[in-house]
Amino acid sequence: MSKAIPPAIRRKIIEFDPFDGHGLSITAFCEQLKISRRTFCNIRARYDEEAGGALHPHSSAPITPARTYDEHVTTALLAIRKRLKGQGWDYGPISIRFEGIASGELTALPILVCMSRFFGGSECRFMWRGSLV
To answer: Were both Cys, which of 80, 111, 112, 119 would link to 93 (CB 3.0–4.6 Å)?
Structure first.
């Protein structure tokens, strides 16, 4: 993730006029500030849309926060995993997902990444694409 451009540099980008008589091209101006032309154009376009809002970077927080699951889901996932392992079946996240759907134990199944996070936090390990997760 790249660093946010400080407001002072954003102000210079907004106030820069390539048609002014000082002779700097946009490329030379960007090299002087150590930014890319794309960054220059993005900030100028944002200034055209939001005016003063372009002086401050957008929030880096995710648009949708990570979904949390209650203890019921975690215990059900661990129970399915234990049952599959005891029966000698594959007990990876994909198998657990299919078993949860087939048995109807869980109505809202977490995605595979969340299941990996659950199993990692519960001191369970399983093979995931050839490496321990």
So the answer is: 112
